[in-house]
Amino acid sequence: RHWLDLDRLAFPLVVRNMRAGDTYQPVGDDEPRKVADLFETGRVPSWNRRNWPMILSAGVIVWSRKFGAAAWAAAGPGTRRVLRVGEAGVRRGEK
């Protein structure tokens, strides 16, 4: 969930917090979803949402904490170059 296909990304990548109206399609979802809906189903406390990190490529979300890579940007069997995404200070097994 935290591996991106480097050849599908436009640089520079941008890290920013969640914004109202953000949508993206995490791996495993059939269609794009509002990040606010992902927070609800993922039981993310409201006090954590404001500073929720996301990575964007050309203004499009490619990764979000807990929800992982966007379906279109995720590394797969045909991927030649991979970018691993993670957070410093997060222990293995935590999301």
The order of strands across the largest sheet is 2-5-6-7
Q: Helix-strand pattern, N to C? A: EEEEHHEEEE
The general outline is globular
Straight-line N-to-C gap: 11 Å
Query: What is the structural class?
Result: alpha+beta
- Unreliable parts: none
Number of strands: 8
What is the beta-strand fraction?
25-35%
Radius of gyration: 13 Å
Counted by DSSP, the helix tally is 2
**Average pLDDT score:** 92
Kindly describe this structure.
With 95 residues, the chain is of the alpha+beta class. 12% of the residues lie in helices and 28% in strands. The protein contains two helices and eight strands; from the N terminus they run E-E-E-E-H-H-E-E-E-E. It has helices spanning 35-41, 46-49; strands spanning 3-5, 13-17, 23-24, 33-34, 53-57, 60-64, 68-69, 82-84. The strands form three sheets. Strands 2-5-6-7 form a four-stranded antiparallel beta sheet, with no helix packed on it. It has a two-stranded antiparallel sheet with strand order 1-8. Strands 3-4 form a two-stranded antiparallel ribbon. A hairpin with a 2-residue loop joins strand 5 (53-57) and strand 6. The chain is globular, with a radius of gyration of 13 Å.
